[in-house]
Amino acid sequence: MTDPKNFRIKSFGCQMNVYDGERMAELLAAKGMKQAADGEDADLVVLNTCHIREKAAEKAYSDIGRLKREDGSRPMVALAGCVAQAEGEVAQQRSKAIDIVVGPQAYHRLPELVGEAASGKRPVDTDMPAISKFDAMPARTRVGPSAFLTVAEGCDKFCTYCVVPYTRGAEISRPWSDIVAEAQSLTERGAREITLLGQNVSAWRGEDEKGREGGLELLIRRLARIDGLERIRYTTSHPADMDEGLIAAHGEVEKLMPYLHLPVQAGSDRILKAMNRHHTAESYLKLIERFRAARPDLAISGDFIVGFPGETDAEFEETLAIVDAVGYASAYSFKYSPRPGTPAAEMEDQVSTHVMDERLQRLQARLAEHSLAFNRSKIGQIFPILIDRRGKKPGQMIGKSPWLQSVFVESDAAIGDMVEVTIEQALPNSLGGRLREMVDA
Ligand code: 5AD
Ligand code: SF4
């Protein structure tokens, strides 16, 4: 295999993988490689994979099969992300087409590993080194109007269904000064919105320039002082780590958007305990109440799992009850998927696929009712949206509302513009608006 000249990166799964994909692209570009254009053949394909559910993990392997070219040759393939971390060299035994295996904590070494693969080796790097990969990476170059910024990685919560503590490792917080510098550099390069990322972002701790220790609230208040940065978001939070300061920030920091992704997973206390969630349905609802007291228009979003081992019909009804009690603006819901090495995979009473399908359908129908109701509540309102992509129809642009809804609008605005719209239409997953004025281009 020769040295690759161009590359393509395909990211699956969560927003952190999107962020990691961008960083890997920056690393390869810094070594003189070019990103392959759409439809162009790439010499190197990086599959940045997700291991959270079985379906996501299997997708990596089915994608590899499709990389073979008509003449029988294939590109150099790097398996990156959480499947790489979980499977290590076993991945290369499963598929001969995998030249490189690189875990989420080792991808700063990707250019080096590409060199090794070009000289005929099949390198595997799933180390979780003490020295942060972030220190070994070039400055940010790939920036859109809305940018991701990883501030914390890994998770120490050990929910019994979840692979993240094993694939992403122990919880670490990036240092304050690195985060502030990266946010500044993203803003200088055109980002107007930054989403702070962490598998458990609410557990972020650090020290500011004066040596004061604090949590995510302190960081958000500092980032809000960056000129040109207009919107701050963060995700994903754990209900057991939300403190008074962060709640207060939602009422006080104007740039902090009125949106909170706070997964609850299930509504039954027995199931929450078996999941090792460290909260009850009631403590979760009380927490939401406190957030809403600080910011009454807050949009709440959540994650749900149906069919956790042992979940009865009555316990599933409690999930529907918590959905009604919160009135989620948006949500992600999944069928439980047993993951190798997690405690829940060994539990008795695994729920049948048929029952899970039925529960998921009912849950999703209920969630859709709530998001439609939330979206309808915006009809007639006027607010700014940040344009982030083109619509399918000519002259149509799509932007994000403060509550993270996609808003369709006829406008000659460009990507990155903030425009003010009047909302005229609500669908379950989007809003339709009419342009009022350009706030500023
Ligand atoms: N099965 C199904 N869903 C899962 N999630 C995490 N692990 C599993 C699993 N084993 C869901 C949770 C989490 C989201 C990122 O994925 O809802 O919040
Ligand atoms: Fe998938 Fe979780 Fe890894 Fe993200 S952190 S890529 S969601 S397994």
Blueprint of the fold:
Elements: E1 6-11, H1 15-30, E2 34-35, E3 44-49, H2 54-65, E4 76-80, H3 81-87, H4 89-94, E5 100-102, H5 110-118, E6 124-125, E7 146-150, E8 152-153, H6 164-167, E9 172-173, H7 176-188, E10 193-197, E11 205-207, E12 213-215, H8 216-223, E13 231-235, H9 244-252, E14 259-261, H10 269-274, H11 281-294, E15 299-306, H12 313-326, E16 330-335, H13 353-376, E17 382-390, E18 396-400, E19 406-410, E20 418-426, E21 430-440
Parallel strand pairs: 1-2, 1-3, 3-4, 4-5, 5-6, 7-10, 10-13, 14-15, 15-16, 19-21
Antiparallel strand pairs: 8-9, 11-12, 17-18, 17-20, 18-19, 20-21
Helix pairs in contact: 8-9, 9-11, 12-13
The structure holds 5'-deoxyadenosine and iron/sulfur cluster.
Describe what you observe in this structure.
By secondary structure, the chain is an alpha/beta fold. The chain folds into 4 domains: 6-125, Methylthiotransferase, N-terminal domain (Rossmann fold, 3-Layer(aba) Sandwich), CATH 3.40.50; 143-257, Transcription Regulator spoIIAA, CATH 3.30.750.210; 290-377, Transcription Regulator spoIIAA; 382-438, Beta Barrel (OB fold (Dihydrolipoamide Acetyltransferase, E2P)), CATH 2.40.50.140. The chain is built from 13 helices and 21 strands. The strands form 6 sheets. A 6-stranded parallel beta sheet has the order 2-1-3-4-5-6, sandwiched between helices. A 5-stranded mixed barrel has the order 17-18-19-21-20. A 3-stranded parallel beta sheet has the order 7-10-13, sandwiched between helices. Strand 3 (44-49), helix 2 and strand 4 (76-80) form a beta-alpha-beta unit. The longest helix has 24 residues, at 353-376. Bound molecules: 5'-deoxyadenosine and iron/sulfur cluster. Residues 5-119 form the MTTase N-terminal domain. It is found in: Cytoplasm. It catalyses: N(6)-dimethylallyladenosine(37) in tRNA + (sulfur carrier)-SH + AH2 + 2 S-adenosyl-L-methionine = 2-methylsulfanyl-N(6)-dimethylallyladenosine(37) in tRNA + (sulfur carrier)-H + 5'-deoxyadenosine + L-methionine + A + S-adenosyl-L-homocysteine + 2 H(+).
